[in-house]
Amino acid sequence: MEKPNLPEFKVSPELKEQIIQNSILKHFKSGEIILNENASIGSIPIIGSGVIRVIRTDEDGKEILLYYLKAGESCIMSFLGGIHNDTSKVRAEVEEDADIYFLPINKVVLFIKEYPQFLEYIFKLYHKRFEELLEVINAITFKKVDERLLLLLKKKTDLQGSNVINVSHEQLANELATARVVVSRLLKQLEDDGWVELGRNKITIKKNIRF
After folding, report:
1. Global pTM value
2. 112-126 pLDDT, tens digit each
3. Strands (DSSP E) along 63-195, which ranges?
4. Is the pLDDT of residue 16 over 80?
5. Taking the CB of the first residue and of the last residue of the chain, which one, N or C, has fewer CB atoms within 10 A?
6. Cα(72)–Cα(84) distance, integer angstroms
7. CA pseudo-torsion sign 81, 11, 31, 170
8. How far are the Cα atoms of 88, 161, 178, 188, 208 from residue 154, in angstroms, in the given order?
């Protein structure tokens, strides 16, 4: 597969070329899993295109969405787990068809030493993910499920650049760590109020969601 130029990956041309040349590029379809919980981490993913959702599962099998990864980003959990020879604490699934570069951990360590801007890139990712995790904690603690559902729908439309979201009620329920019946009821209420139009595994946003 010909390797594209990683246009959203904001580093120097020299570092970008090193990462492209030393990575393995793979294509994934929506719904595929690129990393499972408790899996060993031999390389870190850098998103060339598409969207990845990162999920945490508890002992009872309940899931919650932690954050999304988009083009030019990577998973800080993979960085930390790989560098410390630890297993993955999250699951990463493809939200939107994606091209992903997998950079071996030994190259990650080497590039951190040789390219200060690569370390800066990692710190920026860490800061962004930390803020997003704080938002998740804040939403679970202080917001009602209907508010969290609207926030999630807005985030999905922003990521996809479209007011049409291809998603099931069950997936939304998993990402919100609530029951599918709750999400279905809330979506029906949103439809009755003119906010959305529901289809089979599809939601069309009819009003601009603002917070």
Report:
1. 0.78
2. 999 999 999 999 999
3. 63-69, 91-104, 164-165
4. yes
5. C
6. 23
7. positive
8. 28, 10, 18, 17, 9
